[in-house]
Amino acid sequence: MKLVVVSAGLSVPSSTRLLGDRLAAAVGRAAEVHTQVVELRELAVEIAQNFTNGFPGRALAAAQEAVAAADGLIVVTPVFSASYSGLFKSFFDVLDPEALAGKPVLIAATGGSARHSLVLEHALRPLFAYLKAVVVPTGVYAASEDWGAEGLDGRIERAAGELTALMAGLSGEVSVGGSVGRATPAARGADAFSAVVPFEEQLAALRPTG
User: Fold this and answer.
1) pTM for the complete prediction?
2) What is the mean pLDDT of residues 100-108?
């Protein structure tokens, strides 16, 4: 499975990139994935040019293709003015509107204070819901005081597990005897929907027989 991490960190090193790396490593412990990181700071000029001329540069086009082809995404932004950064939003503004449809996405953010943790719910989750992505239930926010403190590792593992489960389900992979394999058509069909009785049959059963 292909995992893409989109990091909007601006500094080097970056706590935003560090959080993305830790989330990707947690996914890698749960499943066999090929991970690619997209650093948006390296694409800032091409993103701006895309707005003015309507065409992505070579590096931006490659990043867009990687995101569209991914089985799952981890997206991480620093908090600016109580929301995602402008660079983060701009990248998804120049992405094909259908590129994330049905794609599992883990949302994460970093900030200087725990007071900004609701950015996940009031900004990131609505954005990716609008883009028709499947956002995992657990988002991960890391404030400055969270690094090295209890709780962050647990949130990372839980969110990574949720993303891994969605990626495996949508790619048709299942765990067989402790290893990951491709589900057979019979296995994929053996779910709750396979037992649904057609409406016509239910209606016929209600009709008087005498």
Assistant:
1) 0.80
2) 97
